[in-house]
């Protein structure tokens, strides 16, 4: 038993199935609906498009530019007058009134690295001792759980073989603020194998006594982190709420089909993330269950051109766009419509982006290469003023021409939507120095609030 306390977080949740009786998530939701009262909390779903999507082929088309810049796609009208997006995104075009496109995101990193997408800070700039925490870790620290049985920060991200594509971690907040990782073995281990609630409580008391013996000798913070993990594990084991949220089979078939499904075992281009539209549905269910922040990574967007057997350029980037755009169009539109249909659009903010934009000029060898000068982001919900485009780029989508938006402003907006004042909230780094959540001077995007 002494060694069991030294097991990693996963060891504590290998004891078994959630679902020990009591109200299930669907029952709770039905009861809330019938009473006319819905337990509400502010939340964010952050979707990372791994590898950097081509902004000028999706939301910032330049049909009047030379062909080597414009590409093959044509713009189509949306349901908001004056706003056009790619013809391969017709479902999103029909709900543009529920969306916001930021066309002028500047200050992007130049490398394939997810860190800025998850914490809003450029890794090339000075960082505090311990490193910046990712967004969900910060929210979990500041606001804590809505429900003791549901972690405030849940990650649906798949682990990519290219390390920089993965979430950066809790930084100076320490391991106690890591997300609950719902994908993989942790989820499978949420099972009680022949252990009833009484025996579980006995084990919890025993672990607490072991903690007390070790606490005075601990100088690394490991015991404190383990306290958080253990409490979370026991909360999950004695409630069906989290297990229900993770089980999308509880949804009507028509809803699952509306989002679409993909194979979680197929990692796009080997080192990207799987293309799994059902992750967006699971994210919505987790938000309803009580999570404050859900992160997920979706597909692989680092496409380059090449040559065919005769040595001629084939610009395979556009073949991949034709493959990836339709399921993306389907699942994102499904999520946004679902949030509105369920009355969550005022409370839940959705943000979708990659680490940088793409080069204006199309080359035979690289298609559209990395382009940090300008990037694009898509937002929805959060009670924001939607149905608009913020910022613009020049005639070749190469530079911000008006209203440049920074990552600091973007993340200040997310914090604002959660009820956190980025001007006042401070967190101490490992040296005890207080740190603001976003870069100095960053304010929420005024057009949205």
Automatic annotation (TrEMBL):
Name-wise, this protein is: Uncharacterized DUF1501 protein, type 2
SUPFAM superfamilies reported for this sequence: Alkaline phosphatase-like
Annotated Pfam families: DUF1501
Q: Which residues form the signal peptide?
A: none
Which PROSITE patterns does this one have? Answer: TAT
């Amino acid at each position: 038993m002494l060694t069991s306390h030294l097991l990693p977080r996963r060891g504590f949740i290998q004891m078994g199935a959630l679902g020990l009786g009591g109200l299930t998530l669907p029952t709770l939701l039905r009861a809330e609906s019938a009473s006319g009262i819905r337990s509400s909390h502010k939340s964010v779903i952050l979707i990372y498009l791994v590898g950097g999507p081509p902004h000028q082929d999706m939301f910032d088309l330049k049909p009047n530019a030379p062909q080597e810049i414009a590409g093959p796609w044509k713009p189509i009208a949306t349901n908001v007058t004056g706003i056009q997006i790619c013809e391969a995104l017709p479902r999103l075009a029909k709900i543009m009134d529920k969306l916001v496109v930021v066309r002028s995101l500047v200050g992007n990193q130049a490398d394939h690295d997810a860190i800025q997408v998850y914490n809003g800070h450029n890794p090339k700039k000075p960082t505090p001792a311990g490193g910046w925490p990712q967004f969900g870790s910060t929210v979990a620290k500041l606001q804590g759980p809505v429900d003791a049985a549901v972690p405030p920060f849940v990650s649906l991200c798949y682990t990519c073989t290219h390390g920089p594509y993965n979430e950066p971690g809790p930084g100076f907040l320490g391991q106690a603020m890591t997300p609950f990782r719902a994908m993989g073995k942790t989820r499978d281990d949420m099972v009680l194998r022949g252990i009833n609630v009484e025996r579980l409580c006995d084990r919890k008391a025993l672990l607490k006594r072991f903690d007390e013996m070790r606490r005075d000798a601990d100088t690394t913070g490991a015991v404190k982190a383990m306290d958080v993990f253990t409490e979370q594990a026991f909360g999950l084991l004695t409630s069906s709420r989290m297990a229900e949220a993770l089980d999308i089979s509880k949804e009507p078939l028509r809803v699952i089909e509306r989002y679409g499904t993909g194979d979680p075992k197929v990692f796009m281009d080997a080192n990207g993330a799987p293309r799994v539209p059902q992750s967006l549905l699971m994210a919505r269910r987790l938000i309803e269950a009580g999570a404050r922040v859900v992160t997920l990574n979706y597909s692989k967007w680092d496409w380059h051109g090449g040559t065919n057997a005769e040595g001629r350029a084939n610009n395979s980037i556009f073949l991949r766009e034709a493959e990836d755009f339709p399921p993306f169009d389907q699942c994102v539109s499904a999520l946004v419509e679902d949030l509105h249909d369920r009355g969550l659009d005022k409370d839940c903010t959705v943000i979708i982006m990659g680490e940088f934009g793409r080069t204006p000029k199309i080359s035979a060898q690289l298609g559209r290469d990395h382009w940090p000068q300008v990037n694009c982001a898509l937002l929805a919900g959060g009670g924001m003023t939607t149905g608009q485009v913020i910022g613009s780029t020049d005639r070749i989508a190469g530079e911000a021409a008006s209203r440049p938006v920074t990552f600091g402003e973007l993340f200040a907006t997310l914090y604002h939507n959660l009820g956190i004042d980025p001007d006042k909230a401070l967190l101490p780094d490992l040296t005890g120095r207080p740190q603001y959540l976003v870069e100095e001077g960053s304010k929420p995007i005024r057009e949205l609030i």
